[in-house]
TrEMBL record, chain A:
Keyword tags: Cell membrane, Membrane, Transmembrane, Transmembrane helix, Transport
Compartments, record wording: Cell membrane
InterPro entries: MetI-like, MetI-like_sf
Membrane topology: Multi-pass membrane protein
Broad class of where this protein is predominantly found: membrane
UniProt similarity note: Belongs to the binding-protein-dependent transport system permease family.
Protein name listed in UniProt: ABC transporter permease
Kinase is among the record's keywords: no
Automatic annotation (TrEMBL), chain B:
Source organism of the structure: Thalassospira profundimaris
Origin organism lineage: Bacteria, Pseudomonadati, Pseudomonadota, Alphaproteobacteria, Rhodospirillales
Entry keyword Nucleotide-binding: yes
Protein origin, superkingdom: Bacteria
Domain ABC transporter: 6-242
Record bears the keyword Transport: yes
PANTHER family: ALIPHATIC SULFONATES IMPORT ATP-BINDING PROTEIN SSUB (PTHR42788:SF13), TAURINE IMPORT ATP-BINDING PROTEIN-RELATED (PTHR42788)
UniProt xrefs under Gene3D superfamilies: P-loop containing nucleotide triphosphate hydrolases
Keywords: ATP-binding, Nucleotide-binding, Transport
Name of the protein this chain belongs to: Nitrate ABC transporter ATP-binding protein
Length: 256, 261
């Protein structure tokens, strides 16, 4: 039993190492030049050489991402609550939301730069714009799918809309909400890095752009790896929070 | 003014304009503390009847009077239980049963201060339905029958004057169902409250109700009002007696007529 558990814990590490080994072998066997695809070992070594710069840029990207994500959570919960608890607001807001979400956010960055100038602000806003949609949809779904019988039970006890929302709606929407956070945080990274790449002089996105302009592909890939690691770390944090706070949704089974 | 507790006067119901009638000219008089059952083929508007009486839906024509007042919005003190137990999965059994206390006045304002007293009351009620020792379990740790018992407790904890049951035992196995009949009958005999039970189980109606209404196909209409004078408390033995089987037979033939009409 214990051995099995250890193996389960080791699986993600093994698959990551396996991917790196495969990547390394392909590059070496087919003799791919480093300016096309560097080996992972090379990327990691270069990444270490530049670790001070990378650390500074990564810190900035993380800060930007989390700021945009935080705004998205607040905005997403409020809008999701409105959309999920009123049919009229749902009908009014839904086409706008879907239309807005279909606009590629990279196309908005120039507009944001015109408004706010180059730098951190457009990156935070892009992270926010790209990540709030799943939160709105999930919170609204969690609220709107309340069983009609349960609503009848509560209404015939004299419950107000507010009672129903607080006693049943929000607790019920929690698993949906936490599931959306995991999606939203990874999207927020996409948003901030896009904006940094297009219009910034700080952040991992900027670092990668300037590295590629000097044909330093190993450093570009080091940047990609750093973003991936940060994404995995944040995802895992929200995964743990989700499991702790909505145990009931997994029927008390903590391994889900 | 008559002394019935619930009265339906020439009630008609249409879900939306242009639809056919869901319920056609219906008249009912239910006394305080009376246990009535409504039986009929599926889709005959039995559940609409419940929604009308509890004020969740206004009648298209006619009026509904409960406790001397015309119903104009959701009544505030009705207990309800459905085929689906609809317990909240993030609450323990005890907290699920206490849910109405967090909503119904005046309890909602007293609950925090007198928590222990209310918990004691909920535990007692849970014990009477055989759920002692399961108070701190979550709904998904209970069997279907146990969940339905908890749901019954939730509908009764605030001592409602009116209890609405919409096929509450429909999804249970026969043995559990009959056990719950006894539990419900006991609770009702200790302290009678008015019950409207919607069911398609004729034996259930004959076992529990004082008066049984047979409804027609859609548009629903009450065809037969049958008093049931079998002595109480009714038990397993009652179901094997001649008067009981005769009653079930009679109801069955009414339903057959309805379905063939």
């Amino acid at each position: 039993m214990k051995k099995k558990l250890n193996l389960r814990k080791a699986t993600p590490w093994l698959s990551a190492i396996g991917l790196f080994v495969l990547w390394e072998l392909i590059v070496r066997i087919f003799n791919i030049p480093p300016y096309v695809l560097p080996t992972p070992s090379e990327s990691i070594i270069v990444g270490w050489q530049f670790h001070e710069a990378i650390w500074m840029h990564a810190y900035h990207t993380l800060y930007t991402t989390l700021a945009g994500f935080a705004i998205a959570v607040v905005f997403g919960v409020v809008l999701g609550a409105l959309v999920g608890s009123s049919r009229a607001i749902y009908d009014a807001a839904n086409p706008l939301l879907v239309g807005f979400n279909s606009v590629p956010k990279v196309a908005l960055v120039p507009v944001l730069v015109m408004w706010f100038g180059i730098g951190t602000v457009p990156a935070i806003i892009t992270a926010f714009l790209i990540s709030f949609f799943p939160i709105v949809v999930n919170v609204a779904t969690g609220l709107a799918t309340l069983e009609p019988e349960l609503r009848d039970v509560l209404r015939s006890l004299g419950a107000t809309r507010r009672d129903i929302l607080i006693k049943v709606g929000f607790p019920r929407a929690m698993p949906y909400f936490f599931a959306s956070l995991k999606v939203a945080i990874t999207l927020a990274f996409v948003g901030s890095v896009i904006s940094e790449t297009v219009a910034s002089n700080v952040g991992v996105g900027y670092l990668m752009l300037s590295a590629s302009s000097k044909f330093n592909m190993p450093l570009v890939f080091a940047g990609l790896l750093v973003i991936a690691v940060m994404g995995i770390a944040m995802y895992e944090i929200f995964n743990v929070i989700e499991r702790r706070s909505t145990k009931w949704a997994n029927r008390g089974n903590p391994t889900n | 003014m008559s002394n019935s507790f619930v009265e339906l006067n020439d009630v008609k119901l249409r879900y939306s304009e242009g639809d056919e009638l869901a319920l056609d000219t219906t008249n009912m008089k239910i006394d305080k503390g009376e246990f009535i059952a409504v039986v009929g083929p599926s889709g005959c508007g039995k559940s609409s009847l419940m929604k009308l009486v509890s004020g969740l839906m206004p009648p298209t024509e006619g009026n509904v009077i409960v406790d001397g007042k015309e119903v104009s919005g959701p009544l505030k003190i009705v207990g309800m239980a459905f085929q689906n137990p609809t317990l909240l999965p993030w609450r323990t059994t005890l907290d699920n049963v206490l849910l109405p206390m967090e909503i119904v006045k005046p309890h909602r304002h007293r609950l925090r201060k007198h928590r222990a007293e209310y918990e004691e009351r909920a535990r007692k009620l849970l014990a009477t339905v055989g759920l002692e020792g399961h108070e701190d379990k979550y709904p998904w740790e209970l069997s279907g029958g146990m969940q339905q018992r908890a749901s019954l407790c939730r509908s009764l904890i605030h001592e409602p004057d009116l209890l609405m049951l919409d096929e509450p035992f429909g999804a249970l196995d026969a043995f559990t169902r009959e056990e719950l009949w006894d539990i419900l009958q006991n609770l009702w005999m200790i302290k009678p409250f008015t019950v409207i039970l919607v069911t398609h189980d004729l034996r259930e109606a004959a076992y529990l109700a004082d008066t049984i209404y047979v409804m027609s196909k859609r548009p629903g209409k009450i065809l037969v009002e049958r008093e049931n004078t079998l002595p109480r408390p009714r038990d397993q033995e009652t179901t094997f007696t001649q008067p009981f089987t005769d009653l079930v037979h009679e109801l069955r033939s009414h339903i057959r007529d309805v379905r063939e009409s």
